[in-house]
Amino acid sequence: MKKANPNQDRPEIFNTAVLKKIQQARMAQPTAGELLSGILSGDINALSKAITLIESSNPKHFEKANTLIHSCLPHANQSVRIGITGIPGVGKSSFIEAFGKHLSGLGKKIAVLTIDPSSTISHGSILGDKTRMEELAKDPNAYVRPSASGETLGGVARKTRETIVLCEAAGFDTIIIETVGVGQSETAVHSMVDFFLLLNVSGTGDELQGIKRGIMEMADAIVINKADGDNIPKATLARTQFAHALHLFPSKKSGWIPTATTCSAKTNEGIAEIEQLISKYIELTKNNGFFDSKRAEQNEFWLLETIHHQLQEHFFHHPEIQKELEKTKKAVQNNEYSPFAAAQLLLKKYFKNKP
Amino acid sequence: MKKANPNQDRPEIFNTAVLKKIQQARMAQPTAGELLSGILSGDINALSKAITLIESSNPKHFEKANTLIHSCLPHANQSVRIGITGIPGVGKSSFIEAFGKHLSGLGKKIAVLTIDPSSTISHGSILGDKTRMEELAKDPNAYVRPSASGETLGGVARKTRETIVLCEAAGFDTIIIETVGVGQSETAVHSMVDFFLLLNVSGTGDELQGIKRGIMEMADAIVINKADGDNIPKATLARTQFAHALHLFPSKKSGWIPTATTCSAKTNEGIAEIEQLISKYIELTKNNGFFDSKRAEQNEFWLLETIHHQLQEHFFHHPEIQKELEKTKKAVQNNEYSPFAAAQLLLKKYFKNKP
């Protein structure tokens, strides 16, 4: 008896050869070169695929990702990078939507990225981001990309920094980085943008109480959102209070004097003024050289930061250190050992046992 | 002919045997055990010698210094540690003198240490410290020790932290750490004290302009000095402004609400109130557990800080890295390399070439 061909009587879709072909076509990833030419021609689909490649934690993708970033670098760096932070409830999404649409109306191309290390845990904000900026996401001049996921802020920050490069190479001239203000994310965002905007609302008179330490001093502008309707007098008062508080801080290396202003993402009141404010800042800092020197400094910062971070990773994952660390910490906390003497003991073990 | 004895006709002082004995006696250093018992009995001479031992950069002294600190630890940690910072001209020395004399009058024993990494360069402040607090230095209840010298803030910070331990073991119940506000020294001081006091004076209305970023947020109290004579109204106004600014900051983990107050080191007005303020803080934080948990955290901080610092030292002094670093920095600054890709290249070289 003739051996039955298992595919003989099945519809074509079950034919393994055809199936394999379909699967291969689906899995065929564009090469770095294909992604690059897609990005340079402003193809959003290629950009999205490239960002996904960069976000991949599969070590096989690292080299391709690095090649791609490297070839995008000469085409990047022509944008204005704006960081926006503020505690939940101040209306960051609606502000970015209103602000982004205003920029789009001026003929600008806007990419919105978010840094939200917490999104790995809830996975909620990814959906959130997409629905939150519906209008802007539909705008042909805008690209909204939710937060890279990652276990650590360092990982998320790296991915975001490299996504900026890709977006710039794709022709976006305004990059907005939003952060929800979890942990150290504001500091990370501050270290990758040209202009740092703190969004706030008027409240109970304790407007600054929700803001993390040091954030106000980083701000180039404080914007009081929701300045509409009955809320206008309160927002105006808050603006005055913030302006006064900003005045008390040391002057900035940029030569820029931070200001406080009001706006309404609902009525669009004040939105145009914020764009003008940022343009003034860019003009000032490009003229006095601060813009370029800050970007060079930021690049160096991320070089050193990555080194510091990985040296520590290597140390604290060393089996010998992992065995000793908790015990040593306890002894130091309880004043049984001087922190410095204890550090020497651990370091001796680490360097002795190096491969 | 009999060979002449070269020492035969010389006065005894030139006799080499005697001379050697004198030299040996001079050079004979007390043992760690001798220093310890001296310190525990409150012998200032032993304390000074021990601090000098800790400050020594001679590697031969390290082990003895570590032994001494280790044996002092069980007798330390019973003091209140107060950090005092302020820009030049606010009268830090005269304030510490007035404040220290007040504490001495209350029966307290005060040690005053300074952190001034710049003193290595000028060598001026060492003399300065000694003459600046003449009155306090003469007080039998006070011990004034100028800044440890050292090339790096890290080194100075380590020496100061260990000097605190020695002073506490010697029975000092109030340790004042003064910093002149150079570089990152305020942050270092903040990480080794229980209470952080920012000293200021009234000025042109821009009182905060001279203060470095983040310092105000660290302060548990802001004291406006020189509130005497014609200056009282201006100082009172400055106090109000600072109180308002402090109110705008996020609340502290300690549960303490930072306050602003005025004083005069000249008339002693307000000095007693500052002591009461600090006592209240200590009472509050000892009751709510913050005092102990902060000290344990500080110990851990210095353990990790020392490790971070030395890992970096080791990396950046690696010959292979030294050869490449400047070139790599330049390439990264000029956007020829992604900071992350460049970091990987350096790290690969470092770990491959480890002994």
From TrEMBL, chains A, B:
It comes from the Bacteria. GO terms for molecular function: kinase activity. The keyword Kinase applies. Pfam families: MeaB. The keyword Transferase applies. Gene3D superfamilies: 1.10.287.130, 1.20.5.170, P-loop containing nucleotide triphosphate hydrolases (3.40.50.300). Keywords: Kinase, Transferase. Belongs to the SIMIBI class G3E GTPase family. ArgK/MeaB subfamily. PANTHER family: METHYLMALONIC ACIDURIA TYPE A PROTEIN, MITOCHONDRIAL, METHYLMALONYL-COA MUTASE. This is ATPase/protein kinase.
